[in-house]
């Protein structure tokens, strides 16, 4: 299965740092940015997100949610 930019992402459930979610339900009527990361990259992105938490209001203004998934087991 290939997914291209602009395609609707497949629905899935996942355990997250904020509890269990169903992707399409979690998105609701917003746009979403979904990225995959390895453990090392995920840790760096998480650290950066905490340092730059003020960027979240910019995504909120654009009616957009962000979620990252680790490709590691």
Short description:
The chain has 73 residues and is an alpha+beta fold.
Written account of the structure:
There is one protein chain. The longest helix has 13 residues, at 39-51. This protein has 73 residues and is of the alpha+beta class. Helices cover 33% and strands 30% of the residues. It is built from three helices and four strands. Strands 1-2 form a two-stranded antiparallel ribbon. A two-stranded parallel sheet has the order 3-4. The protein has one domain. The two termini are 21 Å apart.
- Fraction of residues in helix: 25-40%
User: What is the structural class?
Assistant: alpha+beta
For the sheet with most strands, the description reads: 2 strands, antiparallel
Q: What is the terminal separation in angstroms?
A: 21 Å
Note the run of SSEs as H and E.
Answer: EEHEHHE
Strand order of the largest sheet: 1-2
Q: Report strand %.
A: 25-35%
Low-confidence stretches: none
Radius of gyration: 13 Å
Q: Total strand count, please?
A: 4
What is the subunit arrangement here? single chain
Q: Average pLDDT across residues?
A: 80
